[in-house]
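job 3f2a | input accepted
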Amino acid sequence: MKTSFLILVLSFFSTSLGWGVVTLPNVIGNNMVLQRDLPVPIWGWAEPGEQVNVSFDGQSKTTLADGEGSWMITLDKLSANSQPASLTIKGINEIKLQNILVGEVWLCSGQSNMEWHVRQCANPQEEIANANYPQIRLFDVPGHTIHQFPQNKGNGNWQVCSSATIPTFSATGYYFGRRVHKELNVPVGLIGSNWGGTRIEPWTPVGGFKSVPELSSLADQVASYTPTTKIGAGSPSAIYNSMVHPLTPFAMRGAIWYQGESNGNEGESYYHKKHALVNGWRKTFQNPDLAFYWTQLCSWDHGNLLKKGEVDKHAWARDWGPLREAQFKALDIPNSGMAVIIDLADAHNPGDIHPRNKQDVGWRLAQWALHQTYGKKDLIPSGPLLEKQEIEKGKIRLSFKYTGRGLMVGEKKGTEPTKPLPNGKLAEFEIAGADKKWFPADAQIDGHQVVVSSTQVKEPIAVRYAFYICPIRANLYNQEGLPASPFRTDNW
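job 3f2a | predicted structure (492 res):
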């Protein structure tokens, strides 16, 4: 009798003082979507040695909290389910999470062009009014925070997608998720973690830097952090530690990424950093097959140079050519893809670094996911991507991947579908000979290839296409309406 009374008293005091109470990271909560067809970790904290049980979808699993009070249970693979269910976690206390679905989960991250809200982008009133999708769930990491070390709990909560909740969510993320939901007819969970004006380095975990020898100095920098180290939004791993790590290892299918403007003066180094980012996230999310799709940078007439006719007077106007090339080269990452959006700059204001048409950005990212991640091989995932050049007498012949039904000169206006221009002329091609002097080139479509020449270059050796910051006239497409990526065949 005395023993039972003592246990009751200890239980009361431990619960009332917060000892032993099972708690969860914010990403595990009401309204969430759990990833189908993958093991699903459920984790949290409790009193060291406390027994914790998790029950969901006929599964019931038990574990003990470790010496530091951390615990994790991994549910077996789940099947997609659009019927709301409850998930129960029992320790000294009991937590019952409601309205849980099972489907596809994606992380939507990057700088301002991923962060820009539905209400800030094209057709906001119409899109918000039509955004009632109860099987799409939204988790937005609030604020802009940094830390020297990986954090655990994080902030945010899951919400049901509706006209009330969508206005301040990522437009690119929403349009991506909406298409995936409609095409697959399964629930979709979208996790937004974004910060305008940020570089790629602060989003990358230290393990990602360690995985790329060229970035060992960044790995050493992060390893040297102490609680008193002064860091900022540009410090390596600082944003990851605070705004991504608390999400790990939540099970998810993949991530979409819209970033690069703040690294716009880079080339090869960004290629290495992209590898580090993907390697690092795949490790911390415990998913070596995590799909990763990114956007290549859009055209941007910084300083209105096109309007002034002064592009060639500014060396930095060429900066984004090497950056887009690095994004292109990073397609050697397995299970990755790149949405080309060179044509989505606002025609009335190409000097705005935030093109409003995020519908096509999300649609093109989803095109990659549907083709590669979800096996819809009838979809062409991308516009033409250069494969090789062949030098012919006075001409250069270019071959591409993803030409689909063939190549065309196209025109893209706003959110309207791309239109073919049967009598249109290809633009933004340049050609050079051994003297490395570039001249505007004549480019002709020949079936699934393009033949490039110039009367000013008798013996050409290299071609460039749209290889500067604002190639607003770029108009090479496949007949599926997807634009060709900028490229060069030289290495000067």
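job 3f2a | The two ends are 86 Å apart (CA to CA).
job 3f2a | closed
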